[in-house]
Design a protein that fits this description.
Layout lengths: L1 H14 L5 H9 L7 H10 L4 H17 L4
């Protein structure tokens, strides 16, 4: 019963969903790629970089990209 309710509710949400593609693209561009920082963090961890070092590096790079508007 709970699962059926969740499916119905999700169906209502999706059917009423309005997607503004231009706004989505604008929002993605405004991150200057920092939304991909978790992927970079994981790649560094897989290469053996310590979590602290990888986190600090990725955080600094993501912040720099936003501050300097680097694409």
């Amino acid at each position: 019963e709970g699962l059926l309710y969740a499916v119905r509710l999700m169906t209502q949400v999706i059917e009423g969903l309005v997607v503004y593609e231009d706004k989505m693209l604008e929002n993605l561009k405004s991150t200057y790629g920092s939304i991909y920082s978790p992927r970079l963090l994981n790649a560094l961890l897989e290469k053996g970089v310590s979590r602290t070092e990888a986190y600090d590096l990725v955080k600094a790079l993501a912040q720099r990209a936003v501050d300097e508007k680097i694409e």
